[in-house]
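Quick one - inputs below.
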Amino acid sequence: MSATFRVGCTRMNLSHVEFLVEEALVNLRRNGLMTLAAIGTVALALAVFGGFGLILWRLEKLASSLPPKFAIDVFLKDNVSRQRAQELQKQFEKHPDIAQVTFKPKEQAWPEFQKELQQEITAALPYNPLPDSFVIQVKDPSRTGAVSAWLKSLPEVDAVRDAKEEVDIILSVATVVRWVGIGGTVLLLIATSIIIYNAIRLTVFARRREIRIMQLIGATSATIRTPFVLEGVVQGVLGAWIACGLIFAVSRLVSHFVMRKLVFIDSLGGSPMPVWVVFLALTVLGAAIGGAVSTLSVRKYLQAV
Amino acid sequence: MIEIQEASVTYPNGVHALRNINLRVEKGEFVFLVGATGAGKSTLLKLITREVLPSHGKVIVAGRNVAEIPPHEVPYYRRMMGVVFQDFGLLPNKTVWENVAFALRVLGLPRKEIRKRTANAIELVGLLRRCDSFPAQLSGGEAQRVAIARAIANDPPLLLADEPTGNLDPDTSWDIMQLLSHINIRGTTVLVASHDKYVIDRMRKRVVMLDRGTIVSDVPCGVYTHEP
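Output:
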């Protein structure tokens, strides 16, 4: 009689896989309302999560694109020769905190200055009053103060102009945005998972009797669990795609009606998150959460008998 | 086929469902388990399906001590028995054909074999014309016939029925019992938990009476004599 127990034990062949996939698809179709409710919940939860992520991405990009725009202007004393200026340039370039050094000779600075101001005003001046200068970009904006102080200490330097205060404000705002973003993302991910768990658990709860029947006719745990997990993955993925549609529709509306009035935000830089990143991230997230919560939900009833 | 030795079942809430039960059922027998609600009939069937384990004593089915079957082997153990419930236990979102075929598909049988066995089982219960109906579209008698077809599709040596006529009118109950009797004649051991006096008295099969968790009588060709 023990041989009977083993019938089909090792048969995980193609037709069995086909059976499990078919089971999942038929159940999705025939439990239409429950499926729609679960997909709708997943879509809304992921749309909120994805939308939050997108806003954060935008703010983060914006914040990190600002500091490099604030370069340090270094003005040399009148008596510094060009040869000495070249030596200084080499010295600056070797400095570990400095990313880029541009020498701006007074002959080049003067026409630019004249162009910026009214030519008539500057034309009255008999000579070029501007000194030779350097425009210096630092690698890490938080080192602006230190680099400025070092430059000021050099005997050849007459004056240093930086935007340390502005950079500091932007950097602290960026730090706050980053931490709020990380905290918010984690909390929202937990909330999203709980909402999806509840939605999918309800679909499993409604079919708990099916699970008992399947157990009594000799279905293995894997055979019972697999269609439920596949259904969870499909619900998660479909929900994620709807969420992507919602996010893109809303972001297009926002950029059409709001950004048009806040042109400076776009001009400040920060490229929008690529479409495929949002699509891929939400699809993977939807599939992972859907599959995981289905596994958890079914496990409870599999242990019952 | 089935041997229960000094088996007791105490549920976690302290209820003693069975006390020192001894029962032996030979291969090919037809046995009624009778008694009032709460007498322990369903628990006795659950001991055999291994839905509950004995707190004391042994349950031996087809030579195997049920308590010693490891959890991963339980599905394979259950494939040697068909189970019929009072509320039919059909999968609501599957047609008659799919419900019967499902029991075979979970075994991983080839499609051709599944088709053949499903058709045979549905033909045996006389429902070939209702193959595409869903359970909600069937009468109680038809639904129970489908449940029986599913239970025997795999041709198991043992058939367990828990109050199979509990939801049916007397004529339909008699038809269902005749069907179980027919299956028994083909060689399947049949255990039926019931308190359907009308049917039991007419069948003249072995009757095991339970009362408050103990066997109070065991009569071959018996009748449902005790009214609780």
